[in-house]
Structures are given as C-alpha cells and as structure tokens.
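User: Assemble these into one structure.

Assistant: Restating your components, then the assembled model:
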Amino acid sequence: MRELLVVSGKGGTGKTTLTACLAALDGQKVIADGDVDAADLFILLKPEIRLRREFKAGYVAFINRETCSRCGACAERCRFEAISEVYEVVPTECEGCGVCARVCPEQAISLQERICGEWYVSETRFGPFVHARLSPGQENSGKLVALVLHQARVLAEEQGIPWLLVDGPPGIGCPVISAMAGAGAVLIVTEPTPSGLHDLRRVAELASHFLLPRAGCINKWDLNPHMTAEIEGFCKDQGIPIVGRIPYDVTVSRSLVARQILQEWAPESAVAREIREMWERLQAFVPEV
Amino acid sequence: MVIAVASGKGGTGKTMVATNLAHLLGNKAQIIDCDVEEPNAHLFLFPVVDKITPVTLPVPEVDLSKCTFCGKCAQVCHYKAIVVVGRQVLTFRELCHGCGGCSLACPEGAIREQPRLLGILEEGRSQNLMYAGGRLRVGEAMSAPLIKAARKLARPDKTVILDAPPGTSCPVIATLKGVDFCLLVTEPTPFGVNDLLLALEVVRSLGLEHGIVINRADLGNGELEKICEEQGLHVLMSIPEDRSIAESYSRGQLITLTHPGYRRAFGKLVESIGKILGKNATKPVTRPQRGLESKTTPAGRKT
C-alpha cells in the first residue's frame, strides 16, 4: 500500500482543495481527513455515511458537591488551574490526570469518560472515506487523528485498495505528529509568502524527524516568483523535490464556492492540468510499504 | 483590553488582520503571537527581540537506587508515560502531561521532576509596538501550556492583540479564554463558512463578545452574509478579493502601508469593537459565562 499525507504548516495554503483534486484522479484509493477540528474535505467529497461512532478519549474530573468538604487539597495539587474557587471542575482546563481524585480526603471526586466527538466511515464516488468531527473546544485531537488513520489503513488492507490519501491538519503540534506517525510520505503544500516559507521549514523539519520522504507543491506560485525561487532553493538544499507549481487562478476559489472539485468542474483549466501531472509524479515518488 | 483574532479555518487572514491592527495602534498596543506552532506575526512586523525565555514542563526522572519497582507510578499515569517492566522503569517524556501524579504516588520518593523544553517565549519591539510570542520546539506536541505562558506576558496598560492558531481545539481555547473580544476572520467559501460555525460554537461557549471580518468578500454567493444575518453576527469589516493585497502579503508588507485606504478601514474596525464593548458595559451581563472561571482564579497557585 502507498500512503500520502498532505500537510502545510501554515493553514489555508490549499491542502483540502488539492487533496480533493487528487482523490478525483485515476486509481482506487481510501481517503481520510486528518484535520479533525476543522474538517472540510467532506464538503467536496459529499460522503454517504455508512458507520458512525462516538469518540471517547481521556477523562474529566467531577466533584460531588454533597461530599466535598471544600478543603482545597484538589485545587492545591492541580497543575492545570482546572478547579475553580468554588470547587467546580473547569472542563476546558482539566487534563483528566486524576491527581485531584487521589488527593481528595473525602473521595468526593470521580473521573468520567470524555466524549470528544464522532468518527465516520463513508462511501464517496472516489472510494471509502474515513473522517471525524471533534466537538468544538475538545482535547485529544491527536488521538482522534490516530484513530481515523488507523481505521483508514485497516479498510485499505481489508479491501485490497492500493492507495491511502490523507488530508492533514495545519501546524506542527499534536495532530500533525499523530498524522505523521505511520505515514508513507508527505506532500507539503506551501505558498510564496514569508509565512508559507517559514512554516514550510518547520513542518519539513518535523517530517524529517519521522524519516518521511518529502515532496513539495507551491500553490499560487506566480503571486511572487522571487519568493517561489527562494522556496525552491530551500527545497533543493533539503532534497525535497517540487512535484507541482500551481498558478494563482480565481477559478479554484470559484469551484470551491460552487462546492465542486476543480478536476470535475474545470478539467481543462491550467490548474487542473498541473494537478494531473503532479499526480503522475507522485505515483513514482510515494514508496510502496 | 484583550482582542483575539481567530478563525477556525487556516489562511483566512488572521495574521494580516492582527498585524495591521496592532501596527495601526502602535504604542497603545501589544501584539502576542499565540499561534506557537507556526508563529508568523514577526514576518510582517520585524520586531527586535531582546528577551527569550524557555518554557518547560516537569517530567519524571526515576532514581533507580530508591525504586522498589512497585509499579504505583505506572498505575496512576493516565498518559502511559511511565511503565515498569521487571526491574526497569521506562519513562516516555514526550507523552507526559506534567501532572505530577507519579511523584505523588511514589511511596519511596524515588521520582524527581526534570524540565522538558516546550518552546520559547520571545519579547521585543517593532518600532513603538510591543511584541511577544511563543515558538513551539519542532517535535513537541503540546502547545497549550506554551500559549498560556505567552498570554501571561499581556500588558494591562495596552490594547493586547492576540494572533490565534487555526482550528477549534485546545490551543484555540488556551488563546481565547477570558479575552474581552474575539474577531473571527472568515472567507465566503464553504470551508470558511463551515469552520466559522465551528469557531462560533467555541466563542459562544466561552461567552465572548465577537465580531466578523470577511476576507476576499466578493468571491462568495451570499451564503456567508445570509448566515451572518441569521446568526445575528456583527460584520465589522469586509476586504475584497484583490490580487494586489495577496501580493503585498507575499512580500511581507502590511496593507495599511501599501494600501493607505485600509488605515481608515482598520481605524473603523477598532471603533466598532469599542462601540460593541462600550454598549454592553452599560448593561448588566445576563448571559452565562461558562468557561471563564479561571479569570477569577487566584494567581500563582499553578505549578
């Protein structure tokens, strides 16, 4: 099987749009959305949900007001400022470590499982799609990403599907680290802006910690050809092949507004052609594992 | 006053709005870059950084000469960050949340805590604007504690502008909690709309005053404007799709400098925020303020 993870560091460089375009190209694949806290790929893939499951992860402390003697032992030991002045747990701060429950002399604190969101296995016109929705404000997005990718890999193996295409989260923190663990290769989508280059450096360094083969794609490259040259220079030094250079074209945004995938909406546009060529290059680039 | 600039979706223009706003306010303001995974505000403000402070998390180190391999530490750890295998204790520093549970549970006092570097805080100035921000160490998974540390650098005498990370999970909560106002920057695409609605859930659950900035405004089909109206949202500013703005951004330039008309637009944005906050200050707050408790937590109790 081959597994390609699309990342960017900086948000909004075109990960999801590009992933949807690649999904629409030839070849059987499983598709997964690894951006669980602002999942958008479903908007373009229009999945039919076949399986829906609750995502539970971690714990949140609960203080029984009847038995609590307001001694303050819990608040003193809590390192996350998760216990308020009136001895109530602040769910957004609680890490579910259980220290409060152990130090409570009245045994007034219990830990409850936290429901953080949902995950789904769906059908799309391009193949099976595994995705999720983290409830807004929840924690454990890294664990949910790991779960989604695990399910997608199992599905690919069971059905003998040779490709797994993953839309990754932005940033370099826990969800990205989760998505990179076990990936086959990364495609870094960047743009010729100072933020694009700065964030590319950091996410490329992270991918190299995981010893992952890295390829680059410069979106809207002609917005600033000088910056594009700088990015290409960086990639050359790092041994990151540039597999795609996509021009700035408002057609892309218009296809999104129409909720359509560019490859289907304007297959003969310059951008769609470039993406087809990029997919060819990726066939040779992503290793079989 | 603390104003956060957030979005849900990445790349909608948070940093552009935050840096232009802060630059316009100049010596009255302080900008804090809370997008610690990918901090970008400095690329447009060119601050001179004169102070760097490491931020760490306490993680366990076991003194094997005192350890009896009873396994209590592993039993209490909810993160599988410490494991006892035969006469060996393995610690997984990267998995540790720094709760201190293991050292508390150890009957032999064999566990000491050592710092793990999360990242750094940078402080400095961009001309007369105060600058601060966090920068996560590449390879570190936990950004929320670093964001909380960055927020503690907020100056009470300034209008503090927070450049928030994208998304809707814990790093965003760490940035938004207890701010006076949240600006949500969005764009009229289905992605922009979907992520705006998710971000609104977060902002509302925290009981924050909020307003909308629509970027690339003329791209859409009216769906976003309709939702803003239905949801009773204040649209405080609209920026049209304009290749020359994208080009300025790609050169690291502020649009209030390259497109002087935007000085007035950003000035008006500040006024609108002031009006919303001023109007509401005169009437009692009746809305539940869930999630704001830590604002009233006595300082200095932590770690």
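Chain B touches chain A through 72 residues (CB under 8 Å).
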